[in-house]
Amino acid sequence: MTVARVIEISASSPESFEAALREGIARANKTLRNVRGAWIKEQRVDTEDGKIRAYQVNLLVTFVLED
To answer: Please, are residues 12 and 56 in contact by the beta-carbon 8 Å criterion?
Structure first.
């Protein structure tokens, strides 16, 4: 039987939502073992003077617990 846990993380990038997503997954894999997937919970942008400064994603990351 497999038991998994879900945590929420936030990641940002000045380039795009996809870049923020990739950064979040890469960082989760540095800290967590057995990462199996992620859902995008929210997307938002930070703006300044009418221009997008950063793209942010909030992710629900799933990883399998070890025995």
So the answer is: yes
Q: How many domains does one find in the chain?
A: 1
The angle subtended at Cα 12 by Cα 6 and Cα 17, nearest 5°, is 90
Give 27's contacts (C-beta < 8 A, 6+ positions apart).
Answer: 9, 11
> What CATH number corresponds to the domain at position 23?
3.30.1660.10
Q: Which pLDDT tens digits describe the chain residue by residue (67 residues)?
A: 899 999 999 999 999 999 999 999 999 999 999 999 999 999 999 999 999 999 999 999 999 999 8
Provide the residue range defining the domain that includes 32: 4-64
* Contact predicate 15/55, CB 8 Å: yes
* Model pTM score: 0.87
- The H or E element containing residue 25 is helix 17-31
